[in-house]
Amino acid sequence: MIRTAVIAFIGALAVGSAAAALAVSPWWWLAAALLAAVAGLGTYDLLQKRHSILRNYPVLGHIRFMLESIRPELQQYFIERNFDGRPFDRDVRSLVYQRAKGEEAELAFGTERNVYEEGYEYFEASMRPQPVAAEQPRVRIGGPDCTKPYDMALLNVSAMSFGSLSANAILALNRGAALGGFAHDTGEGGLSEYHLRHGGDLVWEIGTGYFGCRTDDGRFDRDRFAEKAAHDSVKCVSLKLSQGAKPGIGGVLPGEKVTAEIARVREVPQGKTVISPPYHQVFSTPRELVRFIAEMRELSGGKPVGFKLCVGSRREFLAVCKAMIEENTTPDFIIVDGSEGGTGAAPLEFADHLGSPLTEGLTTVHNALVGTGLRDRIKIGASGKVATGADIVKRMVQGADFTNSARAMMFAIGCIQAQSCHTNTCPVGVATQDQRRARALNVDDKSSRVHHFQSGTVKSAQQIIASLGVNSPAELRPAMLRRRVDPVTVQSYADLYEWLTPGQLLIEPPESWAADWKAADPERFSV
Q1: Residues 6 or more apart from 275 whose CB is under 8 A from it?
Q2: Band of pLDDT at residue 68, cut at 50, 70 and 90
Q3: Residue 184 phi/psi, 5° resolution?
Q4: Same domain membership, residue 349 and residue 247
Q5: Mean pLDDT, to the nearest integer, of 238-249?
Q6: Cis bond leading into 331, ω under 30°?
């Protein structure tokens, strides 16, 4: 309303200046022309639907685009910084923006990366590439105890809650998922009407706060869970043990973002900061965790149920594997969240120093499941800075079956990394509950961008897979990904990491795993 009034006032000044030009002096025509131009531009900004920042900040918002048009200095500076100021992969945000608009990003004059720098990774291209598959590959999620399996896409929307994101952001993500036939993880903030309106496939995440299926005292409500899990749009259920940005502590939603609507969805008091507990109340041992997963699958009517974690102690995860073996039941999937991931606010010390990076987490979970003979029953998802086709292929080489993306999906719906997610003042309406700001995000336009980004990124992954000389993700091997470990030495992932053989931990654990395997106890979590 204020924006419209300001533009109208400038328009009125333009008319007044024109009148002064006719009555007083022709010099007033200069002021009239300038004011009319500003008023016209502001009116256009308010009416256009492609750029949320221009709808919220007419005229002034153009300064951002002017700065980013200066290459390579300023634009490269903005692109190569992530939320905490550390380097991000070159031009990732620019690539996402272009791909979301249905354009394919290309770069002239070759790579600008130092290919002789320690840590540089690349794929081993084949001299005989294969044809690119015409359709997106799918991964069937559902072990022997699952009666309603789900075919997961290679790239899906990672967990971001309603509350952290605006209603329009959730609508855009879900409609994009519906258009592209991929999954949308709800995050732990509950199941809202905005997740259900467009019919996109949902992975309903249940965190330690049990939002949407909690009793008055904050415990897990089995009846309410069963009622909501039965919804046709809910294809899978994910139990969140921990997240990459802040393993060991619960999520936080500032009180200024807890509107009446958010309070109703989460079943919490309005206006008060919501802090999720750091641990679950329904289980306290690995065995109880495995039993609870089985119970959730039964309550959901046989839909796939799994859990998400940022890997910490290998010994603890092996204890869960032992519990699976002894209970003869397994989750249908496990999502590994890397410590480098995270789109929400987190304490700096947690973001920088707790939890395993995605590569270590994936190789740990994959090898533990292979070594215990459980890998063929459980699919592995990977989340944490997945934004490109190369990221997808890399994570599958490291042990994943599918990937989830949060940050890149936020880019696709217009995030400009203003780093104000926790302040409720997001300038593009993505991470705010301020309706005035959120309404600038046009759902139809942004959902189309989500669809284009996912489709283009998976297509890129398929092209990379074909260039490696294989026909499907199932044929990828660790030897296909190589890393420079010093200026003159390159090793493949087959040599960099130890890869267990099926059932090896049950027969004769290798020396590097023997102590953790022996100490792993399904009756307790310990390090």
Answers
A1: 250, 251, 252
A2: low
A3: -125, 110
A4: yes
A5: 82
A6: no
Would you state the pLDDT for residue 275?
85
Checking if the pLDDT of 339 tops 60, the result is yes
Q: What separation, in Å, do the N-terminal and C-terminal C-alpha atoms of the chain show?
A: 57
Q: Which 8-state DSSP code applies to residue 340? A: T
Give domain status of residue 483, yes or no: no
Q: What is the pLDDT of residues 3-14, one digit of tens each?
A: 778 778 888 888
For 444-465, what is each residue's pLDDT tens digit?
999 999 999 999 999 999 999 9
Q: How many domains does the chain have?
A: 2
Q: Which domain holds residue 416?
A: 140-424
The one-letter code for the residue type at 89 is D
Parallel, antiparallel, or unpaired for β 150-153 and 138-141?
antiparallel
* Cα 288 to Cα 16: distance, rounded to the nearest angstrom: 76
Q: For residues 64 and 150, state if they share a domain.
A: no
Residue 382 Cα distances to 163, 248, 353, 393, 463, angstroms:
24, 19, 20, 11, 20
| Helix, strand, coil shares, percent, the chain, to 5 | 45, 15, 45
Does residue 514 lie in a domain region? Answer: no
Whether 405 contacts 158, CB under 8 Å: yes
pLDDT in tens, 380-400: 999 988 999 999 999 999 999
DSSP-assigned letters across all residues of 300-329: TTS--EEEEE----HHHHHHHHHHHHHHT-
Q: Which of 30, 55, 81 is the last residue of a domain?
A: 81
Neighbours of 104 (CB within 10 A): 10
Backbone angles phi, psi at 485, to 5 degrees: -95, -20
Q: Which of 408, 424, 440 is the last residue of a domain?
A: 424
Phi, psi of 324 (to 5 degrees): -60, -45
Dist CA 230 CA 237 (whole Å): 11
73 shares a domain with 146? no
Question: How many CA atoms does the CB half-sphere of 93 hold within 13 Å?
Answer: 20
For 22-36, 240-254, 366-380, 410-424, which range has the lowest pLDDT when averaged over its residues? 240-254
- CA-CA distance, 71 to 60, in Å (whole number)? 21
E strands in 81-134 = 121-123
Residue 368, domain CATH: 3.20.20.70
